[in-house]
Design brief:
This protein is an alpha+beta fold. 22% of the residues lie in helices and 27% in strands. It contains 4 helices and 12 strands. The N and C termini lie far apart (57 Å).
Length: 208
Amino acid sequence: MSVTSFRQRTMERIPPRLRGLIELVVIVVVALVLAEAIQATIVKPFKIPSPSMEPTLDVGQRVLVNRLTYRFRSPKIGDIIVFHPPSSLDCGVPVPASEPCPKSVPTPASDYFVKRIVALPGDTLSVRDGHPVVNGKEMTNEPYIAPCGEVAACNMPTTITIPKGEYFVMGDNRGDSDDSRFWGPVPRSWIIGPVFFTYWPPDRIGTT
């Protein structure tokens, strides 16, 4: 007797109601496995946990992250990314208040942050009025940010160089964002991918 024939005869012995339940369980299990596989390899849903990206992304807003994008291109300035932050949100080296953190601790945390890339590997960076000054040029064309205000992190005039393979990130809510200014650039290997779509709440559905 073939394996297929054996399975068919086995299913025929099962009462129709129980057979339907078994089919439902199998469908649900397969759907869950597929959903998990998609999250692990293609698209990951993410819920915005803090106001650091306001007004671009609100607390509780739900977005989708593309895990495949950076297999085909490098991260670029302006990308909103989800990533693992460093395991300590203190700078990896001692720095004065006038200097952005040049180096994070060497290990990532297990949770996720969302910020915007403002400087690339090898770029020089300082901060003026909440705007990144990259390679000597202040990025004032940032209509998506909330004004920085008067907090110390709005002005960090000492220039640093972003290490090879790392990216400097800042929240759009420049006066209320815990970001690379305090704990350093993010290694490429810690980046999950760019945010490309928001699906909740309904009035915010669309691409980012």
